[in-house]
Specification:
The complex is a heterodimer of chains A (322) and B (130). Chain A is an alpha+beta fold. Helix content of chain A is 38%, strand content 26%. In chain A, the strands form 4 sheets. In chain A, strands 1-2-6-7-10-13-14-15 form an 8-stranded antiparallel β-sheet. Chain A has a 3-stranded antiparallel β-sheet with strand order 3-5-4, covered by helices on one side. In chain A, helix 2 packs antiparallel against helix 7 and helix 7 packs antiparallel against helix 8. By secondary structure, chain B is of the alpha+beta class. In chain B, 24% of the residues lie in helices and 38% in strands. Chain B is built from 2 helices and 8 strands, in the order αβββββαβββ. A 4-stranded antiparallel β-sheet of chain B has the order 2-1-7-6, with no helix packed on it. In chain B, strand 1 and strand 2 form a beta hairpin. The radius of gyration of chain B is 25 Å and the shape is rod-shaped. About 5% of the residues of chain B have low confidence. The chains are: A alpha+beta (322), B alpha+beta (130). Chains A and B meet through helix 1, strand 1, strand 2, strand 8 and strand 10 of A and helix 1, strand 7 and strand 8 of B.
Chain lengths: 322, 130
């Protein structure tokens, strides 16, 4: 055997060993944020990606929580709810605030960041020992407060006008996933997934050869959706509905009427912007199909809509696998 | 040129050794038990994992206490299933979910900051559902 052949054999063997040892390395991570669990995976064993992901989620989870003071470093939006004086915000908090106000316009007001009191009103009534429906008078006061409230932003200082308080619960996860998407883009991470409480997903490519994820739907196991390099948001009244006098009430409250009765069982949206999708999915369960189709065209997402346990609309661009 | 017999034997042994060495990684990959079929439950309190249970190996139904933030839960496990039987939380959304047995599904007890995530080794599977 010649020296050259021996060298080739050694190199092939060494390369094969390296290939065998490096293949299949994936990192899974979990983090408690947004009052739920955020679970992620990415290809490779670079621990710094996990650390950066968790740091970002922790920060957004804290700064978006307007229910309790998360501590001075992150409490700009919480403080904004406590006063009508100007509050200095850091860039992320400012972006979340501005983006949420923008989404109110894009959803025609069906997502409203000033819904803190209205949401709590329903939450308290429905989760009382004896569930009830809030009175029309109290709902009307909330709606009137919301209509007369706003935020003025000058530089990095925001001033809340009026009595209604801000609530980012419906869009904070989507906002965080949008930020993670940017981070992974900068870091060059291509194979990954992040699930924020299973209601908001950010998908890169899966470890499968075609990179597609099989997206299982919680309320329908007759097929899976296949997707990659996208995001998915879902809103549903099927999660913990509460019946009062034979009517099922949802945790999703219509900020225009003040009612907690939804049009559809469940709406899944797939598209590029998880922040937009979070607001649009919330708004979609309150609307009709024409409204959803109009928004699909305007913002380039794809909808899958369920009512009475069956699909009532599916965008033809969605990939189904039986 | 005729090679010496000793050198031929040496080369044969060397080639055999190299072929075997090269075959090890693919063989390991092919024969390794990935546990794809096994279903696990990861139980975390405020994001810190407290228990990681292979549900596929749970042959008998059993219950145990998990200390959450400000209260306890009684968690039940059985073959390929997990549930929250009792909880000190005020809304009992976690209890109402009953037995859960699908990968990627989570039970969240937000008031006590406890999450139970079911998972398997198949990273290409994800679940979506509010």
């Amino acid at each position: 055997m010649s020296k050259r052949a021996r060298f080739a054999f050694v190199m092939i063997s060494f390369g094969s060993l390296l290939f065998g040892c490096s293949k299949d390395v994936n990192t899974r991570w979990l983090f408690y944020a947004f009052h739920t669990e955020v679970a992620g995976y990415y290809e490779g064993g670079d621990e710094s990606i996990k650390k950066q992901s968790i740091n970002l989620l922790e920060k957004i989870s804290k700064l978006s929580d307007t229910y309790a003071d998360p501590g001075s470093a992150y409490n700009g939006l919480y403080r904004l709810n406590q006063t009508n004086d100007g509050v200095e915000l850091d860039s992320l908090a400012l972006e979340l605030l501005k983006g949420s106000i923008d989404l109110k316009g894009k959803t025609d007001g069906y997502f409203d960041p000033f819904c803190f009191d209205l949401s709590n009103l329903w939450k308290d009534a429905l989760h009382a020992v004896t569930p009830s429906v809030p009175s029309e008078e109290v709902i009307s006061t909330c709606l009137s407060n919301m209509a007369s409230s706003g935020v003025q932003i000058e530089g990095n200082v925001a001033t809340r006008i009026g009595n209604a308080k801000l609530d980012f619960g419906a869009v904070a996860k989507g906002f965080a996933l949008k930020e993670l998407k940017s981070l992974y883009g900068e870091l060059g991470v291509k194979r990954f997934s992040v699930s924020a409480g299973n209601s908001s997903l950010l998908l890169g490519e899966s470890p499968a050869e075609d990179g597609l994820f099989d997206v299982h739907l919680k309320y329908d196991d007759s097929f899976v959706l296949q997707a990659k390099n996208t995001s998915i948001a879902v809103s549903s009244r099927l999660e913990d509905p509460i019946a009062v006098d034979g009517v099922d009430y949802s945790h999703i409250v219509n900020p225009l009427t003040g009612e907690a009765v939804n049009t559809f069982d469940c709406v899944y949206l797939e598209g590029d912007d998880p922040f937009l999708l979070d607001a649009m999915s919330t708004a979609s369960v309150l609307n009709d199909l024409e409204w959803i189709k109009e928004k699909e065209k305007a913002y380039g997402f794809k909808a899958l809509v369920y009512d009475d346990g069956k699909i009532v609309y599916a965008n033809e661009g969605l990939i189904f696998k039986k | 040129m005729k090679l010496p017999k000793r050198k031929i034997i040496f080369d044969a042994v060397l080639i055999g050794g190299l072929v075997l060495t090269a075959a090890i990684p693919p063989l390991v990959l092919l024969t390794r038990k990935t546990g794809d079929g096994d279903l696990y439950a990861s139980i975390s309190v405020k994001g810190e994992e407290k228990e990681n249970i292979n549900l596929s190996k749970e042959n008998e139904e059993r219950y145990f206490i998990v200390e959450g933030i400000g209260g306890n839960l009684t968690v039940g496990v059985k073959k390929d299933g997990v549930c929250v039987k009792e909880s000190d939380c005020h809304n009992h959304i976690c209890v109402h979910q009953g037995w859960v047995s699908k990968a990627n599904r989570i039970i969240v007890c937000a008031p006590l900051e406890v999450t139970i995530r079911l998972y398997n080794q198949n990273i290409s599977d994800v679940e979506v559902g509010a």
